[in-house]
Amino acid sequence: ADEYDIQIALHSDTLNEAGFLEDTIQAINGRVIHIFHTEGAGGGHAPDLLKMASLPNILPSSTNPTKPFTVNTIDEHLDMVMVGHH
């Protein structure tokens, strides 16, 4: 991502099998990153992912939204809305 100047969207490990919150923060190394399920429901480092929202380089979200401006945006949007706002 650094080499090609592209964004990273991270859905971290709920069961902490690949590392804990501190390991993820260390791997991000101050880079700006978008993380999903920051509130801790539905994924991410349970139970302490909310701590990520306090970091200045983190763009948090609470759902796993459809990626905008892609070929599947329209097809996936209704499903995402129905699941996220049932």
Automatic annotation (TrEMBL):
This protein's UniProt keywords: Cytoplasm, Hydrolase
The keyword Hydrolase belongs to this UniProt entry's keyword annotation: yes
A GO CC annotation given for this chain: cytoplasm
KW Transmembrane helix (keyword) present: no
Catalytic residues as annotated in Swiss-Prot or TrEMBL: H85
Chief place of localization: cytoplasm
The protein, known as: UreC
